[in-house]
Amino acid sequence: MRVLRLGAIVAAVVLVVVVGVTLLIQTGPPSKDDLMRQAGLVGKSQLLVGVLDDEPGISYRDPQTGQYSGFDIDMTYLVASDLGFDRASVRFLPIQSKDRARMQAQDGDQFLTVDLVVASYSITSQRAAQPGVNFSASYLNTAQSVLTRRGHAPVQAWSDLTGERVCTITTSTSLLSQQNNIVKVERNKISECVTDLLAGKIDAVTTDAVILAGFVHQHPGQLMLNALGIDFDEQWGMNVGDNLALRTLVNLSLYHSRYDATDRRWEDAFERDLRPEQHDSLPQEVANDRQPPVAKVRVREWPWEK
């Protein structure tokens, strides 16, 4: 009888544990495997990523080799690796700044909807309110700046550009739009602005400092970055479109990158892609050399976790 009673007690305890674990799984946060399924990544052979192709040091496609390089490219590889995609399984497609919200990138003579947009995309409330835009946590902080040819008088405030022709891209968040005494010129690509600047067709270019620094580095002795004294209020995020499960996975990757002391991928990318540009652009600081904070992501790693 004692054996039977003991067996009944053990069975009851096991049942309680099983039911408890089941309830936790059903009511707790999703696991990473759950999120991978919800994001449509299970069994997926390629990760399609929309990137810019004309920003040296950030996202640049070599016209000879067709290879992409830069900080945005390395950030893509960082996240893709944590999602289970090796480098050969990441397919970069060029995207126009105006198409980042729609997540439509070019593939030859047609457009494809990409899984992720990593394209120097500043997080703003106006952009976040657009249909199909859902930003990840920030992965880089920078500030707005002004690029001029060497020999131009130093630019320390917008008023120093009064009456001059200043170029930026059509979708820019630059404060240029608020300046009434400047001749505004818009282009589809920031590289087109820089080409016009080098040719003397315009007087200055404005966008994020870390983007402009790449052109200073690319054209040594010809261009100069001007510090406007604006705080690092430009935060870049990745757009996942309507795939909220993917956003959680991207944030999980960025969280581990930020707080795992053994993970040096972000720091290595900064040193490789952006540190050389910082040297060429002094005294302007082009970007914060520490990865931005990331909120803890609620993902269940063990069955009993709430």
UniProtKB/TrEMBL annotation:
<dbReference type="GO" id="GO:0006865">
    <property type="term" value="P:amino acid transport"/>
</dbReference>
<feature type="domain" description="Solute-binding protein family 3/N-terminal">
    <location>
        <begin position="46"/>
        <end position="273"/>
    </location>
</feature>
<keyword id="KW-0812">Transmembrane</keyword>
<keyword id="KW-0813">Transport</keyword>
<keyword id="KW-0472">Membrane</keyword>
<dbReference type="InterPro" id="IPR051455">
    <property type="entry name" value="Bact_solute-bind_prot3"/>
</dbReference>
<dbReference type="GO" id="GO:0005576">
    <property type="term" value="C:extracellular region"/>
</dbReference>
<protein>
    <recommendedName>
        <fullName>Solute-binding protein family 3/N-terminal domain-containing protein</fullName>
    </recommendedName>
</protein>
<feature type="transmembrane region" description="Helical">
    <location>
        <begin position="6"/>
        <end position="25"/>
    </location>
</feature>
<keyword id="KW-1133">Transmembrane helix</keyword>
<keyword id="KW-0732">Signal</keyword>
<dbReference type="GO" id="GO:0030288">
    <property type="term" value="C:outer membrane-bounded periplasmic space"/>
</dbReference>
<dbReference type="Pfam" id="PF00497">
    <property type="entry name" value="SBP_bac_3"/>
</dbReference>
<dbReference type="InterPro" id="IPR001638">
    <property type="entry name" value="Solute-binding_3/MltF_N"/>
</dbReference>
<comment type="similarity">
    <text>Belongs to the bacterial solute-binding protein 3 family.</text>
</comment>
